[in-house]
Amino acid sequence: MATLEEQAINTLRFLSADGVQKANSGHPGLPMGTAAIAYTIWTRHLKFDPHNPGWWDRDRFILSGGHGSMLLYSLLHLTGFDVSMDDLMNFRQLGYKTPGHPEFGFTPGVEATTGPLGQGLSNGVGMATAEAMLAKQYNRADAELFDHHIYGIVTDGDLMEGVSSEAASLAGHLKLGKIIYCYDDNRITIDGSTELSFTEDRGKRFESYGWQVLFVEDGNDVEAIDAAIAKAKMDERPSLIICRTHIGFGLPTRQDTSKAHGEPPGLEELNGAKVKLGWPAEPVFYIPESVRELYTGVGEKGHQAWKEWKETTESYARSYPDQWDELENRMEKRYPVNWEAQLPVFATDEKGMATRSASGQVLNALTNVFPQIAGGSADLTPSNNTWIKNSSAFQADNHGGKYLHFGVREHAMGAIVNGMAYHGGFIPFGATFLVFTDYMRGAIRLSALSHLHTIWVMTHDSIGLGEDGPTHQPVEHLASLRAIPNLVVIRPADANETAEAWRVAINRKHGPTLIALTRQAVPTYDRNKYAKSRQLEKGGYVLADLGEGEPEIILMASGSEVSLVMAAGQRMADEGVSVRVVSFPSWELFNSTTPEYRNSVLPAATTKRLAVEMGVSQGWEKWIGDEGVIISMDTFGASAPYKQLMEKFGFTVENIYSIAIKLLNKKR
Amino acid sequence: MATLEEQAINTLRFLSADGVQKANSGHPGLPMGTAAIAYTIWTRHLKFDPHNPGWWDRDRFILSGGHGSMLLYSLLHLTGFDVSMDDLMNFRQLGYKTPGHPEFGFTPGVEATTGPLGQGLSNGVGMATAEAMLAKQYNRADAELFDHHIYGIVTDGDLMEGVSSEAASLAGHLKLGKIIYCYDDNRITIDGSTELSFTEDRGKRFESYGWQVLFVEDGNDVEAIDAAIAKAKMDERPSLIICRTHIGFGLPTRQDTSKAHGEPPGLEELNGAKVKLGWPAEPVFYIPESVRELYTGVGEKGHQAWKEWKETTESYARSYPDQWDELENRMEKRYPVNWEAQLPVFATDEKGMATRSASGQVLNALTNVFPQIAGGSADLTPSNNTWIKNSSAFQADNHGGKYLHFGVREHAMGAIVNGMAYHGGFIPFGATFLVFTDYMRGAIRLSALSHLHTIWVMTHDSIGLGEDGPTHQPVEHLASLRAIPNLVVIRPADANETAEAWRVAINRKHGPTLIALTRQAVPTYDRNKYAKSRQLEKGGYVLADLGEGEPEIILMASGSEVSLVMAAGQRMADEGVSVRVVSFPSWELFNSTTPEYRNSVLPAATTKRLAVEMGVSQGWEKWIGDEGVIISMDTFGASAPYKQLMEKFGFTVENIYSIAIKLLNKKR
């Protein structure tokens, strides 16, 4: 007779396998192999309340191998989250809360969107960073508001991905001891045995990062897992618990083979497993009453814990009203009323400044009003201008710091920043050169898919960076980032547009914003003479109508090229042509305005349109129309002083002027 | 009095520093810190011939920290490569061979384009793989054609990047003992001390991967470096030699600081270093005569070695004429005359097959004629259909295998495949899901920038993959890849177009090709009734003119959506509308045809145009014009069976038909 515990574990196994079998799609192997690990974490350690999935001080549980999603959905259902039996029975179907891979914001209790391997493991590093920062800043001896762990189940694939190497190295450096990951060491990947490609000494590797590494010889041994987790909690280092598991545990012929990984087992194999583990073949989605009670009890116990914490917050609020106010505001994404007054205003200046410099000033002004702004650079702090002057570097011995030295680890930076956003209480940012968004697209995409409030600060945004040459010069990057749904890309034209870009980014609470900034100086426009920079929020706006009457031609550009079209336009106006100059910092923002507004900026009647951008032309056709012309950069750049490059590639006032005149004189 | 050796090392230091100072841009720190390492490798170990930079059996030298490029250029100049003093004196200037970061194909003797960190280190794993494969296949007991090492100077940044963790783990697994990397352990990064973010135990980490790790306590100690390299050569494992160095060695105030890394030292600091190291301040770019002789001698010794090797090849050619023929052809990129006859022809089939399946068949047919095809998948072999049936997996104990199990390591896969292409003798390929190109863009971009003949096989190319959901469904990826200059992206519509896509990829010898393939079945068209699939090479072509007379409307699509526009078009034609159906698999190929051809496919007169693609609309405006309409996928997808998704997102014959009719009836 199976014990209640065994039944509770088998319930996870077979709810998951039944879900996959019914959907005729999915991954039974991970849930069947790690059910005992999940059981141990969730019933003996995890602090959570199904009625308050947003509890600030809950432990976070990350299923980094997101393909095993049915395991998580089963846990959520059983412990009382708003995930129904109907959802389980409609795994991977439209309109249910149980998509193929867990999606943050879509299913209550899902802490991170996982599936792309390595991300969840790395997000946890950001969550642990967030926990440490909040604990340091707000906990008081008589009222501890933050003290939670980051649990995870991580897989072979997670460990193989480079992003997790980067993140784990940083986690070890920062001694983020709240991280406790159980590694599903099943020795099988899609291609077959891990002997084919993954024979490194994983334990030794994580030790080299400064982790505590523990071993559980039998991944079904609840007591051993429990003991290891207890030991992990005692250590100041992050912990990796290597659990020897068996993929598809119980399946008669598929256990320990790659066939168990990613396809429905088939009824015969599934029922064979049920027989083997003493489980009834029918009903499917079977939950013994005692098992239901067990998990419900765990959920209710968690709810009690939440109530106690709630009482703590009340006494905290009485004792420390200012801190409480500040904390509540940041956790609930409420802003000080007059925060926008803190945005610097930059004086008109022909010589101007690099927008990366302006960005540094704006960021530092904002950190005075927003304690929740934290982040850093992938080892380009002086170049990205992201140092937070009123703070210090977050380190193992300085949890009060807000600045993160990510090291040369762009992808982990992305995932860690996302993790801080998942955690809550932060407006996190990450910075590098625009060209190296290529190294972190996996994370940028997930920030967009998960509606995270993250800010990506990307400097050196064109061939304008000069001598470093084509390896460092972004050309296709604006286009490739604009292509990502739900990511707002802004390339400000001057210092004041840069301040406005930050305003947009701060106000965009449910999606990421990427700000592309120059290395080189650009003029700061006279906003009394030209349009107000506030108009940046519309994505595209009439910076100036030069000359008299309706515009005969529209010159449009983003970022540093605005100064070029402005000068070319002025020259044409001096010659009697009526020229409209449009500053076009963000396609996404422009697209979100009304058709009327868009037509007011780009009137259908004005078909002579010239766009100028030091990136690939792709997509500009939409704005210039059939008669329009684009001066773009459709090849890789070159290594030389930037003014020579701009000359070589046609980004000069002279060239723009001459092409514009040709366009103007061209017969329809 | 400095020894000749010291002078030879200081020559490297000060040529580099003078170059940076003159350019007023660049990175003096690495060359000054690692000059002795470079000297030791180049004068005591590296097998090379400046007169034959393409020598098949040369050792490869990779400066993975590409920012230290002046070091490499100095070495190339001194040893007799075609890099002149004028080039050195015009570092980072237009028209010279000395760009900011080393560029393959641009400067003789540069083995890999480096600068984006981690890439060079990982490229070397591909080079070592290539060496092992060629040695196994062609070496004979009496005639060894391949026996060379892969040397590299790798940096903190290289080690921090995830791509190098992935690649190093695989190199250890594969026991690629020809790899000998000297690690510039200078303990300084741009943000400051490595204590800020990089305190892992690097030696232990590389040991965990299965590397031999050696230590050199003084990075200026030529004998110690020499001994370590000698030891590395004796070991069957790849070796990491950790050399304690000093960034900007010699600079009076900047040595061992981040100020030494990436900016000109200034004359005072530079001359201070010269005084300190006993070097004349003038002339700048000073090369003592004896030093010049020394390096020239090394180059000439290398030339002698090449001559001996050349003799071996002659005896080899006599003894093994067939093998020699085959080898010479592959090294020189010459193909068998009738190879294209091997391309499978797929029979008309309404039900059809997934293009990934067709691709698997084509690949396997090609491996029968091309011994140089080698590659693999990032642990998605059964899904990508890339297994090479007539071969086996390349492993430490099986260098005869051509298939690479990369593990779940997309970025390293990209860099390793690039490394094989850099090496020569291969048409290498790498495969994963299209969505995970995000994880390897750094490498894909470099394949394009370096004009490498690599083939990227990307399956599961749309929401057509179904239940795995938005984390796995590419939406923005076609657009973002099309944006990369010099990358040809092809999305074939059926099995026969897939064969043609491979034909293009094989024939495109100086640039990468990415083939996007479906998970789901698509019809195989009747090529007697419709246009020949060979037309794929033009990128876009008239698949069918349905109905009578000039087309009233053009329906265009790529990949799996071609079958939808075909059916919608047929329905309109049945109702008497004259419809042109354009299969549009590749924008880049279409762009490379003549304007006349393009106008013949998309006549200016036909302004009613509808494009259909399950990706973002970005860029399609160019082809549809102001009156056109796009049915696209501008949001993330969802998790459900794929037919439901296609319904939900409007990719049905019914929806296309109705939008097309509306477009047709719309007044201008």
Strand order of the largest sheet of chain A: 10-9-11-12-14-13
Mean model confidence by pLDDT of chain A: 98
Structural class of chain A: alpha/beta
Q: How many separate helices of chain A?
A: 24
- Multimeric status of the protein: homodimer
Taking the alpha carbons of the first and last residues of chain A, their distance comes to 87 Å
What is the global morphology of chain A?
A: elongated
Strand content of chain A: 5-15%
Poorly predicted regions of chain A are: none
Percent of residues of chain A in helical segments? Answer: 40-55%
Number of strands of chain A: 20
Using only CA atoms, what is the Rg of chain A? Answer: 28 Å
Q: How is the biggest beta sheet of chain A arranged?
A: 6 strands, parallel
Largest interface: A-B, 107 and 106 residues
